Amino acid sequence: MGRREVREQVFKLLFRVEFNPREEMPQQEAFFFEDEENKMAQEGCAEVTQKFNRILEKFFQYILDHYQF
Fold it and tell me: If residue 3 lies in a helix (H) or strand (E), which one and from where to where?
């Protein structure tokens, strides 16, 4: 899987963050990879998941650091 394809898959997963609570994201990841359009080799799934989780962690840390709840 090329870098462009990985970025595209990560973006598709990140798009779901706005519509789902953080607690549901592992389930959303599972749904994402079950979808026929997003089927890929196991190595590709691991790479996309790893990059997605790193971005997600930074995103939530940014939100916590910059916004009062």
Answer: helix 3-15
Taking phi first (over 0 means left), then psi (-120 to 50 degrees means alpha), and beta for anything else, what does residue 27 get? alpha
- The whole-model pTM stands at 0.80
Q: How many domains does the chain have?
A: 1
- pLDDT band of residue 38 (cuts 50, 70, 90) is confident
Query: What is the mean predicted confidence (pLDDT) over 49-66?
Result: 92
Q: Domain limits at 15?
A: 3-66
* Token pair of 40 as six digits: 């890929």
Q: Which helix (H) or strand (E) holds 42?
A: helix 42-66
Q: How many residues does the chain have?
A: 69
